[in-house]
Amino acid sequence: MPQERMRMGVLAIRRPPVTRWGSGELRPSAVLPQEPATAPHKLIAREPAGETWYLGAADVTLWSGDTGHHHDNLTSAHPSIWVAIRGRTPEQAEIVCVTADPYEGEGYASDPDLIVEAVPMPAGVRATVAAFIAAHHVEIPFKKRKRSKADPAAMDPRAPRILPPEEKWGAGRKP
């Protein structure tokens, strides 16, 4: 199955807590189209609204079987990359997945231990995904299945709901 891998850097924003009892929040905020030469878990910028951290890099794999999903992503109002991370502090945050498949991103969003965010897809990545779709997409037409006619005179092929005692499990065993 044809595939293409792209290595991307992941940025996250750490916002301060709203109350003195809170711990703040860490959310993925952007992806970089190439992996930078920066070490993972490094503070990039400090602003009044929060801190921007580089969490590390991960591979985005485009599979030829998922080109329909990628096409749905590109034709949406906001093409996105889904980033799933585990951890509440930027020093210990782990990148679980980075994907261009919206349905895979949605699947990760159901895990309560992960923080999943859809971040904007960079223009260069958008062009790569569009080229991959153009090269590998195969439209599969929808075929509605038709039921076969049932013959009421035929015997029921299903097993009876209650088995007779001689056919039950362990019936042939001696005590």
Salient structural properties:
7 strands, 34% strand, alpha+beta, 175 residues, 3 helices, three-stranded antiparallel β-sheet, elongated
Mean pLDDT: 90
What is the count of DSSP helices, taking H or I runs of 4+ residues? 3
Range of helix content: 10-25%
Radius of gyration: 26 Å
Any overview of this molecule?
With 175 residues, this protein is of the alpha+beta class. It has one domain. The chain contains three helices and seven strands, in the order E-E-E-E-H-E-E-H-E-H. It has helices at residues 67-74, 102-109, 123-136; strands at residues 3-15, 25-32, 42-47, 50-63, 80-86, 94-99, 115-120. It has a four-stranded antiparallel sheet, with helices on one face. The chain has a three-stranded antiparallel sheet with strand order 6-5-7, covered by helices on one side. Strand 3 (42-47) and strand 4 (50-63) form a beta hairpin. Helix 1 (67-74) packs across helix 3 (123-136). The protein is elongated. The N and C termini lie far apart (56 Å).
